[in-house]
Design goal:
Order of helices and strands: HHHHHH
Radius of gyration: 14 Å
Helix content: over 70%
Distance between the termini: 41 Å
Strand content: under 5%
Number of helices: 6
Length: 130
């Protein structure tokens, strides 16, 4: 139970940090991102770099039997969106990450038991900036 609560808290913290960065309110320092990226890798079970080769269905399927499936999908979506911002110099990769991240956020929004205003705001922001 304690491990489960800690896992959910870490997922929420990573999501919140990325949301703040995406909304332009605060840049993520490299040392902070390195720490969160390491935690995210442990939570996801694979390297974040692998996300550039995955589509939304691949991500959804990778968490198929996980008790925290929707939370992990949402966190992965946010990581994809952050990676999209970080790879603006490669428009193909950036667009793909952004599109897959948006699709995953919408999936999380439809399948989560918890309403998230920040999730809704990010979805709206991305759709407005297409």
């Amino acid at each position: 139970m304690i491990k489960q609560d800690y896992l959910l808290r870490m997922i929420e913290e990573i999501i919140s940090m990325i949301v703040i960065a995406l909304l332009g309110k605060k840049k993520i320092k490299q040392n902070e991102w390195t720490e969160y990226d390491s935690i995210a890798k442990q939570i996801m079970g694979f390297e974040t770099e692998k996300l550039t080769d995955m589509d939304a269905d691949d991500v959804i399927n990778s968490f198929e039997n996980d008790n925290n499936r929707v939370d992990k999908i949402e966190m992965t979506a946010m990581i994809m969106l952050k990676m999209s911002e970080d790879t603006k110099d490669n428009i193909v990769v950036s667009s793909r990450l952004r599109q897959n991240g948006l699709e995953l956020l919408k999936y999380a929004d439809r399948n989560s038991n918890i309403f998230s205003l920040q999730r809704k705001q990010i979805i709206t922001l991305i759709e407005m900036n297409k």
